[in-house]
Structure formats: C-alpha cells, structure tokens
Amino acid sequence: MQTLAIIPARGGSKSIPRKNVRFLAGKPLIAHTIEQAHQAKLVNRVVVSTDDVEIAAISQQYGAEVIWRPAEISGDTATSEAALLYTLNFLREQENYLPDILVFLQCTSPLTLAEDIDASIQTLLESNADSALAVVPFHYFLWQSTASGEAIGINHDKRVRPLRQQRTPQYLETGAVYVMRTQGFLEAKHRFFGKTVMYIMPAERCLEIDEPVDFEIAEHRMRQLQQQRHAALLPQRISALVLDFDGVFTDNKVWVLEDGREAVRCDRSDGLGLAMLTRLGLPILVLSSEKNPVVQARCDKLNLTCYHGVQDKLVSLQGWLSEIKVPLSEVVYVGNDMNDLACLQAVGCGIVVHDAYPDVRAAAKIILASLGGQGAIREVTELIHQRLKENDYGKQC
C-alpha cells in the first residue's frame, strides 16, 4: 500500500505574515508537520505543495519533496482540494505515480504527532471507509443570533441544560489530519466522500495557528508535551548523571588568548540546575576528553567530580560506576559528538544537545530543545529533578 502525505503551504498568509516559516519551538512552523509525517510508519512519501521560494527551501531542508503550484490556485480563495488535486495529477503525469491513500496534513496544526497520522490512516483502513478526519470531543453549547438580534441555540434547546454525560457525543474537527482513498477523492474532488469515519485525537494536541497569540499558546503546549515525552524515556530509577563538557557546558567554541591560554563560555543557569540535583544527593560526573584546565576549574566551582583528558570515555565511565556501585541502566548521559557515542548507547538514557553531531543525534533517546552552552544542562536537570521528586530520591540517600 502506497500512502502519500501532502502538506499545502502558501506563502501569502494575511492574518500572520510568513506564518508557515515563522519559528515555533526552535524551528519553522512547517518543519514540525514534515518531521511528524516522516516519522509516521504508514506514510511512504511526503510532499509540500507551495508557491513560495522560502517555504520550498525549508521543506527540502527537512526532507520533504516540493511540487510548485501555479498562481491560479495560490490565492486567498484557493481551496486545499485544488492543491491536492493538482499535486496528484502532476505526480501521475510526471511519474505515473498514484498512491492508494492520500493524507492531507495542515502545517498550521503543529501539535499533531506521527501517532495521530498513523491512527487516522488505521481508522480508515479498519473501518473500510472512504475518508477520515481527526477530531476531538466537543462539549460546549453553540449559539447564533437571528436577524432580530435574538440568541438561539444551535446544538441544543435553550430551555434544557443537560449534563455533559447526558448529551449525545459531539466532535470538533481539528483541521490537523484528513485521510482519503485516492481514487475516490479524484472522483469526488472533496475531502469528505463516501463513508467518513473519525479518529479521536487527544484534546491537548488540538490547536490551529490562526492568530499571533496562537504561537504563544503552541510554544507553551509544545514544551509541556515534549517534557512529558522526554520524562517517559528516562530510566525509572536514575542513580547518576554524566555530562560531557565541550558542546554541553559550552557552545563548543573557544577563545584563544595571545599567550595561548583558552577560555570558554558557560551558562550560569546550568550551575543552578546542577545544584538542585546535588542537594538531592545524585552523583554527577563530568567526563571530558579536553585537557584544558578550564574544565577542572568549572567543575571545582560547581563541586562536581571531573575526569578530563580522558581517551576512552566508556572505560572511564565504567570505572567510576564500579566505584559508586551504580549500573549503566540507571545512568543518564549527556553528550554532543562522536566521542560520546559509546557512552550514549551503553547507558539507560542517552541525551544530546539540540546542535549535536547528526550521527550522535540518531543514537540518542532524547534530543534537547536547547543548544550546548545555552541552557541544555538546565533543561536536563529540571527533567531529572522532577523524576527524582516523583521517586522520593532524597529520602533514599
């Protein structure tokens, strides 16, 4: 079965100029949808339909194919269906390609996850349906005003106020995911045709970016959801934290003075975060291959155990853990480059900073939102601090 995901993205947004490429949680808005589409197990191909050079470049940067749409279907009144039909016909004419299933994704719904995309497709397949959409439960009373100015109920009788559990379930269209059997869509030319079914999406992931304030709401929700996902990846019991220095404590850059001495920049908020963990008694090790005494100086100030000038990090790590009698499975390791790879793979949870080397990112369980030297350690310490509090770690020590 071939499944194609199409993400329509015009360049001419009026309510929020350049909306589709505006940054949200560290990356362009459209990038969030492209990444989740790629992660969806049931999607084979991801295409962005656009008329905009910048959107096209960003889409390709994040791994999507780009198909240019003509001006006549790029204006304010152009429908999403027009973009979908043009893309399908273009692929059929140019490649003789016609997918079995079409997934229409809107990049203005950045909280959508790969699991929502897969579940929407699965709902259509299991129900033997023709079209499907993502929805959330809706429990509100809707009103409208008549020509005379009188308020009347739309989905209720104003004389009756039933409790939520007494009402017939209703659902709100999220605008995030639509799934269609391709042949049926080409014939109907509309996203809802034949037998239509619903995938009920978690309400906390329902958000469309329509107004500037929606970016603020999305940023807050994304941070919360990301913390929840990251927390689930941590070991149930955390008995030690191990940190690389360059690229984790620092931004991986160095100032070289005239006399040959080197200086680096660290984030003070990281020190406060580490202090929270040391007060709970969590063993912390800084493990660095760097020989510069600045590593030891920073660790001395923070009262952290430090091994620097290390050639084989995994051997040194295993030796330290043997001394404090902690298994690798209960260790969280934070790194950024290839010399951290063996440790990241060996411990209970390998974490990398957002700007880590690509091959190292691929090996990590958690990729932080923060860059090295710019709050990455603080992000980790707050995550771990919450887990330790849940496990009442301080009383165990």
Beta strand %: 15-25%
Which residues form runs of ≥5 with pLDDT under 50?
A: none
Radius of gyration: 26 Å
Q: Class of the largest domain, according to the CATH hierarchy?
A: Alpha Beta
Number of helices, where a helix is a run of at least 4 consecutive DSSP H or I residues: 13
**What percent of residues adopt helix (DSSP H or I)?**
25-40%
Task: Count up the domains.
Answer: 2
| CATH topology-level fold name of the largest domain | Spore Coat Polysaccharide Biosynthesis Protein SpsA, Chain A
Structural class: alpha/beta
Mean pLDDT: 92
CA(first)-CA(last) distance: 55 Å
Spatial arrangement of strands, main beta sheet = 5-4-1-6-10-7-11
Q: CATH H level of the largest domain: which superfamily?
A: Spore Coat Polysaccharide Biosynthesis Protein SpsA, Chain A
**Beta strands, count:** 19
Write down the oligomeric state.
Answer: single chain
Structure description:
The longest helix is centred in the middle third of the chain and has 22 residues, at 212-233. The chain is an alpha/beta fold and 397 residues long. A 7-stranded mixed beta sheet has the order 5-4-1-6-10-7-11, with helices on both faces. A 6-stranded parallel beta sheet has the order 16-15-12-17-18-19, sandwiched between helices. Strands 2-3 form a two-stranded antiparallel ribbon. The chain has 13 helices and 19 strands. The chain has helices at 29-39, 53-61, 80-95, 114-126, 182-188, 212-233, 268-279, 293-302, 313-324, 341-346, 358-363, 376-390, 393-396; strands spanning 3-9, 23-24, 27-28, 45-50, 65-68, 101-105, 131-138, 143-145, 151-153, 170-181, 196-200, 240-243, 255-256, 262-263, 284-288, 305-308, 331-335, 349-352, 366-367. It folds into 2 domains: 3-210, Spore Coat Polysaccharide Biosynthesis Protein SpsA, Chain A, CATH 3.90.550; 234-396, Rossmann fold, CATH 3.40.50.1000. Helix 7 (268-279) packs parallel to helix 12.
